[in-house]
Structure formats: structure tokens, C-alpha cells
Amino acid sequence: MLWGVAHNMTDTLLAAFKRIMSMTDFQTSWIQLAFYGSYFCLALPAAIFIRKYSYKSGILLGLGLFALGSLLFYPAGMMMSYGFFLVALYVLAGGLSILETAANPYILVIGPPETATQRLNLAQSFNPIGSVIGVFLSKIFILSKLNTAEAIDRTNMTPEALEAIQADELAGVVSTYVGVALFLIVVWFIIRAVKMPVASEETEKDGVISGFKRLFKNKNYVRGVMAQFFYVGAQIGVWSYTIRYVMTELDVMESGASDYYLISLVLFAGSRFLFTILMKYFKPSILLAFSSLLAILLSFVVIYASGMTAVIALVLISVCMSLMFPTIYGLAAEGLGNDTKLGGSGLIMAILGGALITAIQGQVSDISGSIRLSYYVPMLCFVVVMYFGLAHYFHKPEKKQEEVV
């Protein structure tokens, strides 16, 4: 739930900084580059740390960096520096990377392997609840504080007047993140005090290189990492530009457009619980392929339709995406044995797709002058996800990795 709060507060920052500092879509995509670039850089060190110590130690380290990054928003706001905000986001996201690298595989290994994917979907169902909270916080404390002055109006202001407006707008950003940091500190002490179950695969005595060699030979795992890269790129692209898209199609301001983003997340949350139930009756790989196909079709509507019809299609894509991350993660991690921690780091590093593909989508929007056409980018990503689902269904699963003695 907590990293859901952070992810979706970050998504709304794109719309906020676009107005506050009069940026292009590509310039604001640096927010996602800092955020998901940190995911990529910290995931492997996190796995090595967890292998040496424990899942709980990884969770505490992740929460600590999450809180520190949130607190760094205060000096960034005082300096009114976009670069400093990116540094704060990098630290914050590093904590989330460590947190996810610890929590996801931990959930997989503390129960029967037959229900691991379903169990991860259930746990991840609380992620979009956090997402809804994150967007709600952003709407109330960040987006509603934005001045209505457009970029062209701001260029005609005196430096003093512009700085006063920006300072007031950034104050909403800073106070929100500092509030989150204080809450995280309380959670850190609660987690520290709680006794957590010990996972069944606590020690690996061979090296990291040997583990990765085994992983690279596992075709299902490699396909899963690729699918995760493109899925996260699609998800972040769809959500990052939702507010911009709705503003264009319905002629509303950021605060009003964020209502549709919030609806998307509510549907995302409810659908994840629904898909968790459906996994009792259908194979996860089939559900993954079907939802990807539906997302592709809805993307066509987003690109070629207009007005409320297009906005509804955009909102419904979130229903399709709801099962994708945990299902790809669970299917890719099947049979990894004692390589589950390292495998988890690779699947978290794949989140870099959220930075790179979002930047590409921003460039497509800037170059074409159409936010609609930019949705070709996530549509193509869903094709890759559908391929992984079908490949997992039609091919025999990899033999379970040998336990490391």
C-alpha cells in the first residue's frame, strides 16, 4: 500500500511541474527517469543485502530511504530547484526499490508454491488502495494549489511575481511529502517491533554470478523480465499522461482531470481483487493474455476516438492492467528456488521501463503535437505482455532450479 502511495503521487507531479515551471512533456518525464532509474540501480544491491541479512532488514532499509527521500523535498522546495527535487525522488525511489525487492519474493516463499502467484496478487491488491490515497493526497494538497496562470502568462510576469506563485505552488508539494515522511517513520518503528515469519529459503552459499547464470538460462524468467519492463512502461505511460489527456479531451483543469485518474485507480484496485478470485478458476497466464488483448483494443479507442468515449476507454485500461504486475512477477519467478531473491531483483530492475518508455511517450507527444498518438507506445507494450502470457501457457514450465546447498 505504501509504495502505491508514492508511485501515484509521482505521476501527478508531472502535471504539477509542467504548470509550475512551464515544462514540456519530455522535461517532466525526467521525474519518472529519476524515479524508475533509481529502481534499476538499487534493485541488485538490495538483493545482495537481503541475501546477506534478511527480508525484514531489506524492508526496514527500504522504508528508511523512502522516508529520507520524502524529507528531502523540504530543502528542495526551499531552493526551488527542479534538480534537487529529482535527487529527492531518486533517494525516495531507491527505498521503494529495496522495499519491493524484499517484499515481493518474501510473499512468494512464505506459502505453498502452487498458490504463489495468487497470493502475490492478493497482497498487491492493497497497492492500488495506496494509489488511490496517493492521488487523493495529490489532488487535495498539490493539484488544487496550482495557480491557473498558463505558461504564456507566466512568461509575461515579473521575476518576483513568478517566484511568489511558484513558491506557493511548491509549498503544497513539500508539505505533502513531509507529511508522508512522518507517517513512514512511525511505520518503520512498528515493522521493527513486529516478529516476522522466517522464509523457507534463508541462505544461499554460492555467488551472485552463479545465480544470474542460472537465471539467464531460464527462458521463462527472461521472457518475464522483458514483459515486466514493457508492462511497467505501459502502466506509467498510461497513468502519467492521463491528466493531460483528460484536460485535452474534456477541456478541464488539472484538479478536475485528476478525478478521472482517481476513478482509474479505484477500478484498478477492485479489479485486482476480482482477478485474484478468478485465478481459482482460470490459469493466470490465460487471464494475463486476455487482459492484454483487451488493453490493446482499448488503446485503439483512446487513439482514434474523442471526448468522453475516449476518456472512458482510457479509464478502462486500468482494469486490464490490474493483474499484470503481480501475475508477470509470479509466473516469471516459478521454479527459481533459492534464486528467488536474485530473480526478484531482475524483475524489479525491469521497472526501469517506467522511465524509458514514459520518456519516449513524452517525446512522441511533443513531436506529433498530439497526446492521443502518444498512446501507440503503451499499446505496443501490451503486445509484449500478451506474448509472455501466451508463451507461458503453451510452453512447458522450466524445471525447478536446484536448491543451493
TrEMBL record:
PANTHER family, A to Z: L-FUCOSE-PROTON SYMPORTER (PTHR43702)
Protein name: MFS transporter
Nuclease among keywords: no
Taxonomic lineage: Bacteria, Pseudomonadati, Bacteroidota, Cytophagia, Cytophagales
InterPro entries: Lfuc_symporter_FucP, MFS, MFS_trans_sf, MFS_TsgA-like
Pfam families: MFS_1
TM region(s), chain numbering: 30-50, 57-76, 82-99, 120-142, 170-191, 221-240, 260-279, 286-305, 311-332, 344-363, 375-394
Keywords linked to the UniProt accession: Cell membrane, Membrane, Transmembrane, Transmembrane helix
Principal location listed in the UniProt entry: membrane
SUPFAM superfamilies, per database record: MFS general substrate transporter (SSF103473)
Source species, domain of life: Bacteria
Cell location: Cell inner membrane
